[in-house]
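QA checklist item 7 of 12: single-chain prediction sanity check.
[x] sequence parsed
[x] length recorded as 153
[x] structure emitted
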Amino acid sequence: MGVVASLIQSELIDLACEETDQTLFFAYQAAKLQNLGYVADSFGQALAEREAEFPTGLALEHVTVAIPHTYVEHVKRPFIAFYRLVDPVMPFIQMGTDDVVVYPRYIMILGIKEAKAQVDLLAELMALLSQEDLVAKLEAAQSPEAIVDLLSH
């Protein structure tokens, strides 16, 4: 079982996310994650601050995603929260740039408890999201359980 399979939770999957504002999205999702016991109350602000400093938007060959995350001290239990945007108009800055805007179809908030696990997790996600057939299946998936299944194999 890969790192992604151990972290993806059906209760943290939203296949019809209607949010279009990044600030509101981070605040709302951080509150939800806190209520479920995954993160500390500092998570939302830390997530927004880290995104501003180290952008996480990625325009990959078959899909555009954002993978926001923050430092381990804000995470109580490791997780991946997965969001498919109804209308991908929420702007993110592309990773490694200061001004290239991307509009992700998917956002995956990562909650990492061990800093060294971050590199392996990001590498595994990039490998998964580079598969055109998997991206097509993610798009067609109709349930959180289907997303868990797809990302766990």
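[x] summary fact logged: The longest strand covers residues 8-17.
[ ] second reviewer sign-off
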